[in-house]
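Reviewer comment 2.1 asked that we show a complete input and output for one of the modelled complexes. We chose the flavin-adenine dinucleotide case, as it is the one discussed in the main text.
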Amino acid sequence: MNSAFRDLTPAQQLVPVTLDGDELMLPDGANLAAALLAYGVGVFRGTPVSGAPRAPYCMMGACFDCLIELHGVTRQACMTQVQAGLVITKPKGRDHADG
Amino acid sequence: MQMVDLAVIGAGPAGMTAATMAAGAGLSVVVLDEQPAPGGQIYRAVASGGTARADILGKDYVEGAVLVQGLLASTARHERGAVVWDIAPLDEGFEITFSQESGPSRVAARRLVLATGALERPIPVPGWTLPGVMTAGAGQILLKASGVVAGSAVLAGSGPLLYLLAIQMSRAGAPPLAIVETQSWRDQLRATPRVLGALRGWRTLFKGFGLLAELRGHAIRRITGARNLAIIGTGRAEGLQFTTKGRTQQISCDTVLLHQGVVPNTQASRALGLEHDWHHGQRAFVPRTDIWGESTHRGIFVIGDGAGIAGAKAAVPAGELAALQIAHQAGALDKATRDKKAGAPRKRLEAERSLRPFLEAAYPVAAQVLAPADTTMVCRCEEVTAGEVRKWAALGCKGPNQTKAFGRVGMGPCQGRYCGLTVTEILARSHDMPHSAVGSYRIRMPLKPVTLGELALLEPTDAAE
Ligand SMILES: Cc1cc2nc3c(=O)[nH]c(=O)nc-3n(C[C@H](O)[C@H](O)[C@H](O)COP(=O)(O)OP(=O)(O)OC[C@H]3O[C@@H](n4cnc5c(N)ncnc54)[C@H](O)[C@@H]3O)c2cc1C
Ligand code: FES
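Response of the prediction step:
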């Protein structure tokens, strides 16, 4: 994937996680939001109100725009560390909600 | 439940200093911070980034390592990754609830220091919710904590943090395409007379000039007096548009990093019902405190940028003053010694604060941010525009808390952190009322959303025992 970000310390131990079912390798222990951005994930979720795309805005746990689901539980990606086996899903927002 | 003498929330320069000194005076201290390591915003990840990153971030950043080592060598207990979400006053002291990876816990403390720092000021400009738009602080956090840097970025807004970030990105080999600044030469002119008042803070002032000199060395394109900032793009940021000298221009980029200075993070001080005052220079509410940092609630101290923006160099003496008074109140320090030791930190604090009127005048908040256009989104969570807030004002809605009833503004997960000040500004203008009379959102615990699973894991409070 093409990323808008560059990783200055790429020689790190990578571990497998899944994002919406696809497997990808991310640096172990890294900040999850930073790792996803560096990997090239541009959109993290759709908003519940309009389904508009969002991605991390503050990186300090204050804006809640980096919300993703980890094993089905909504979490702030910028406040989470990468671990092997994370099952990540992007909240799809209003337009895609079931029912 | 265990009762400690002091709980400090926030392990930035203010909180680390207060905790280390109070522990040194013999008090039992616990420090809670949601980050994985102590350091706060300015010294984020200072102990773990390695030397290459230290070269990029600069000498000021590395100085923070001394504070971190001091804290870790002290008897204060530092809880990592501890998100504080509830603080409840007890008959004596306070009960604090926080969550870590391992689950939620509680601690009781006789006294409380809030050192929760600053947040980026809300920057409601068209397109600010698009992916690819972040705060300048966020761009810097990526660099500090993760060694990740935006490859094709424009920095926009105003304030010294833009210069620092541009330099740090340049050293990292990814200079920004441009810095588009909203302040004009008129603002700089208006600030000039205040330089005299700022001379007491000459050390920091000189560092600022050094920063500008280094910035010139990197030959980054700089545009000042920019107005009508707007991020363009469908689905994500594709560029920044702005007007200068009556001409509209665009710069294509992948990332826009916005900044309009920082404001005190008052979530905890608000939720505790402390008195706040409107600070006209900072255009923000600040908790009311005495010379030691003690708030209007006995036993609760508020220090550092959370008590009014003054920077890291002011946060340290503020932490010292709070620790002196807390040690005195706890009977560990007599009055004469307290007063003798308070002289030096008080001087340093005053010197740093003397810089602020100059900076506030030189880098004012852009007019379009204080009074956003009707179509601009102000509440990111509930997707409410400035026009909607004005419409409610015309219908008789007087205060920020009433706007919540009209349209859920401020009721999303960020709890008004990135719309509260904007709504206050809009209502103050609509009704031609002072900001202090308009007030701000009432904040309620929990400070961060809590899952039912976390609640279920908590033991009932000791009150029941
Ligand atoms: C993103 C950002 C970047 C900045 N970068 C610089 C810089 O490079 N140079 C500079 O001079 N100034 C910088 N500043 C300004 C900065 O606020 C001060 O210089 C300095 O960090 C203030 O110190 P402090 O101790 O008051 O607060 P901070 O250093 O902000 O520390 C506050 C701490 O409180 C913690 N916290 C807050 N709420 C909770 C909670 N509910 N539960 C648990 N923990 C909590 C935070 O995690 C944080 O670690 C920056 C500000 C921001 C917002
Ligand atoms: S990016 Fe703002 S909360 Fe994570």
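The radius of gyration of chain B is 22 Å. We note this here for comparison with the apo prediction described in Section 3.2.
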